[in-house]
Amino acid sequence: MPVVSAGYPYRESRIARVLKLQSTNKPPSLTSTGTVRKATPLMTQYLEVKRRVPDAILFFRLGDFYEMFFEDAETGSRILDIQLTSRSKDGAPLCGVPYHAAEPYIAKLLKAGLKVAICEQAAPETSVKAGGFQLTAPGRGLMPRHIVRVITPGTIGEETVLVAGEKNFLLAVIPEYRLTAADQAAPESGARAAGGCHDSTVISYAIAALELSTGEFIAARLDNLAALREEAARIAPRELILPNNGSSLDALATELGCTLSVIDSEFFEQTRAREILQRHFGEKAANLDDGLGAAAAAALCYVEENFGHDLAHLQAPRVYQPARYMLVDEVSRRHLELIASSDGTRTGSLLAVLDETLTPVGARTLSNWIVYPLLDLAAIGERHDAIEELFESDLGGAMADSLRRIGDLERMAGRIGSLRASPRDLLRLGQVLAAVATLRDLIGGMRAKLITQLVTRLHPLPGIATKIDAAISDEPPVNPRDGNTIRSGFDASVDELRSLALDARGVIARLEASERERSRIPSLKVRYNQVFGYYIEVTKAHLERVPDDYERKQTLVGAERFTTPGLKELERKILSAEAGLRDLELQLFTKLLRDLTDVVPELLETARAVGEFDALRSLAATARRRGYVRPLTNSGTALKLRDGRHPVLETGMKAGEFVPNDLEVDPAERQLLLITGPNMAGKSTYLRQIALIVIMAQMGSFVPATTAELGLVDRVFTRIGARDDLRRGESTFMVEMRETARLLDGLTDRSLLLLDEVGRGTSTFDGLAIAWAIAEHLHDATRAKVLFATHFHELTELAREHPRVRNLGVAVREWNGEVLFLRRVMEGAVNRSYGIEVARLAGLPSSIITRAREILGNLEQGEITEAGIARLAHNPHQSDGCQGPEQIALFTSADGRVLEELRGLDTDRMTPIEALGTLARLASRLRSGG
User: Fold this and answer.
1) 3-state SS, one letter per residue, for 365-388
2) Which sign, positive or negative, has the C-alpha torsion 576, 577, 579, 585?
3) H or E element in which residue 297 lies
4) How far apart are CA 459 and CA 86, in angstroms?
């Protein structure tokens, strides 16, 4: 990998550095077969440009197409599914896409994790003046070309490429080192601290995440590699930037599933970082220490080099502390399907249920709230207060219409700040600001503290709307270079050029009439031909009346042709009017766009206030439609729910079909709840709904329950489901143990731990031993709140010896040979799993079901061989057909065994649910005869 891997460099010194690096490499072949032909001037130019961006797909502008050559063409044709061909002159493989419709193709390449460099042609130009502006006209020869931008997955600004409801972060990471004595004595120790060295020890990691399309810029410090991985997964960047100092973090990009860009560690150097941040943000970046500043500066430099220097919309980096938010680690987010379901789509996730937002910025805000639940009781209460007031309000009508008309103001402000907004963007901005004014009037009278704060952050900016309306035409083009951008009457020079371009014949007719009147020559004519251009023709009979300022241009048999300084100027203007008009309109539009960058901070503040209000309105609408209630959050540690429901599962059921359940867990008395019950009874559903309700409450949402009293939870960890990780060569059980191990670190009495079937991935005795030991550890060594669902019924014995362990069971009934799952979680243990009944429902053959019941009965009676192994086989004869020693019958009389079991029951210590379960099992055994 090159020292600078994202095609840094466009400044002359960096170009020289990359060319020097490339000069030692084997030059690319000019044919797919390896035959080298003499390079044409155009191909020589291409190769020179390509050497500057060795790891990007180069879109090389040729006329109306972006062409790709050599390996780029082969890769592009495969990913984009377009025809691969070759140049007739030199045999170079090539393929191309239309330049005016390139964005969908660029999006495909970015989705594949690639980078795209855009190389535009810039013709030699000659200068003319019109209307006080400098205009240009094309020259001739081989057009110079230069890279105008490198588009990487983390530096996308195009709305058509971005996903509206998702953020698109670029993440820079720098390890921070503890220096040895030798390092501290070295004069370059500051640089080595940023770049790292073999004799230093990593003590923390500084990160900076930049969202280019919205200008969001955040920074944080993580204490260890595990914390870095968790926070990086929560940010979910599209691109990761690392210094090329051997920090061994390359695998992080693979874990995150994002593009990796390794850049020169000099971009992370601390002294340089302070200068860069000071230049761009001034004193607003003074709160960044050296490590955070180095990471932020590297991200900023990377964006400037690849995207451009027009970044007026970027905020100064905001330092945040991940510890101030509830920790829901990446595995738990996946198990709980917070943002996406197991198939990677939004359908079936918590976000899909809660998201009734009307703006893209609102959708992104709501998603962020789910990933970052709050730990501040006051902030949680403010969101609940706002939702409670909105709950009783009209959430449709004018309010909803205003939000829809505002749309994605955040990314529109980003395009304005980066000077990439279109004329239609500006025209729409005027309409958006009017909708902002309407929204502010509609919610201005609300009393909730959070909403009143949001109102103060809404800036309609009426002067800006007026300015845009005066300058931009009613039907502007998408591209300002296409003309008809500036409104008539806004600029006299534009009006003059437009008049010339649209009414050249009328202008000439009016000039002809004016000259006839001035010269008193009734037969005077103004004409044009391609050789002489525009001229005034006067017959020889009227030559004595020709004015003094006429200059002879051509003599004919019966007439003379003249020109004047005014006609020369008019000719020049008419011939260059169309091109000049487009150029002048572009300059005026660009000036207006630059003027608007001054109000980008107000636009962004308005957009984010709209997003927060839209998210609150969405949560209120969902709560009202689905019957959620306001949770009572407090500073305690207990969790109490009445009639809690799973917010996702109930959406696919009829009203009242989902069976609600209660919860009471308290580190002081009911710390560890052991949940037993049959397969398919709903244990996993119960675990998930508790976790989702807690997360919803602390993100500020109402919850699906009758009542909810919830003490603050600092982390939610889950271990639900079974899967392997073949990429790492790990079995299902190894993955299970790894995930369980990570749950046991850093637990407090505010932590909520949800374990489902721990130990089931290995043998019964091994699994039972592990599950028992883990449960004991959680009880004895922590005060974390634990819900432990299991089929190891032996674990229920923990409640006899450990005071804070309670047994819960999911109720089931047997009726006429059928198993009825009641889905109700009750006090007491359940000692049967009914796995065979589930297998029968799944369609296993009846012979297998019958035999399984026989074996289960034998196992339950504890019949064993002389070696101490459960006796399963029934083979009274030897394989050779000879009568062997008589074998003891595997199965004895059902009646006798039932009587023996009844005699052994300790009815005084049985709970009602245990007695009912035992009676049902014995009755079933008598009916089946086995």
Assistant:
1) HHHHHHHCCECCHHHHHHHHHHHH
2) positive
3) helix 290-306
4) 55
The contacts of residue 239 (CB under 8 Å, 6+ apart) are 152, 153, 154, 155, 170, 171, 258, 259, 260, 261
Q: How far is it, in rounded angstroms, from Cα 427 to Cα 183?
A: 58
Judgement on whether residues 664 and 743 belong to the same structural domain of the protein:
yes
CA dist 772 and 775 (Å) reads 5
231 within some domain: yes
Secondary structure (3-state) at 407: coil
Q: State the DSSP code for 870.
A: B
Task: Return d(Cα 202, Cα 245) in angstroms, integer.
Answer: 13
As for how many domains the chain has, the answer is 5
In a domain, 373, yes or no: yes
Question: Can you give the CATH number for the domain in which 702 is found?
Answer: 3.40.50.300
What is the spatial distance between Cα 226 and Cα 836, in angstroms, rounded to a whole number? 42
Please name the amino acid found at residue 164.
Answer: A
Are 518 and 445 within one domain? no
Burial of 906 (0-12, 13-18, 19+ CB in 10 A): exposed
Q: Which domain holds residue 261?
A: 169-324
pLDDT value at residue 744? 85
Q: Which residue in this structure is represented by tokens 């703006």?
A: 359
> Can you read off the two tokens belonging to residue 510?
């009016």
Q: How confident is the model at residue 665 (pLDDT cuts 50, 70, 90)?
A: very high
Token pair, residue 165, equals: 């409801």
Name the least confident of 598-602, 729-733, 745-749, 827-831.
729-733
Domain boundary among 516, 547, 578: 578
Domain identity same for 30 and 120: yes
> Is the CB of residue 155 less than 8 Å from the CB of residue 181?
no
Q: Are 18 and 317 in contact (CB under 8 A)?
A: no
Residues 31 and 95 reside in one and the same domain: yes
Report the 10 Å Cβ neighbour count for 781: 10
Calpha distance 259→153 (Å, rounded): 7
Instruction: Please name the residue that has the structure tokens 């003590």.
Output: 203
- Tell me what percent of the residues of the chain surpass a pLDDT of 70: 83
**724 three-class SS:** coil
Last residue of a domain, one of 98, 123, 151: 151
What one-letter code names the amino acid at 706?
T
pLDDT digits (tens, 9 = 90+) for 841-865: 777 888 887 888 777 777 666 655 5
Indicate whether 765 and 652 sit together in one domain. Answer: yes
Q: How many CB atoms lie within 10 A of CB 182?
A: 12
Q: Which residues are 675's β-sheet partners? A: 789, 808
- For residue 317, cis peptide bond before it (omega within 30 degrees of 0): no
Answer whether residue 48 is part of any domain: yes
Walk across the sheet containing 632-634 and list its strands.
Answer: 632-634, 707-711, 639-644, 661-665
Cα–Cα separations (whole angstroms), residue 836 to 765, 849, 855, 858, 863? 20, 7, 11, 14, 20
Same domain, 79 and 224: no
E-strand ranges in 457-569 read 525-529, 533-539, 551-555, 559-563
pTM of the model: 0.81
Q: Which whole-number Å values give the CA distances from 107 to 111, 261, 835, in the listed order? A: 6, 18, 49
Kindly state whether residues 61 and 206 are assigned to the same domain. Answer: no
Same domain, 654 and 723: yes
More confident residue, 54 or 640: 640
Taking alpha carbons only, the member of 788, 831, 758, 826 closest to residue 674 is 788
In the block, tokens 């999911």 appear at 810
CATH number for position 95: 3.40.1170.10
What is the CATH classification number for the domain harbouring 570? 1.10.1420.10
For residue 809, the one-letter residue type is: G
Is residue 569 in some structural domain? yes
| pLDDT digits 0-9 by tens, 752-767 | 999 988 877 676 778 8
Per-position DSSP letters for 799-855, written without gaps between them: HHH-TTEEEEEEEEEEETTEEEEEEEEEES------HHHHHHHHT--HHHHHHHHHH
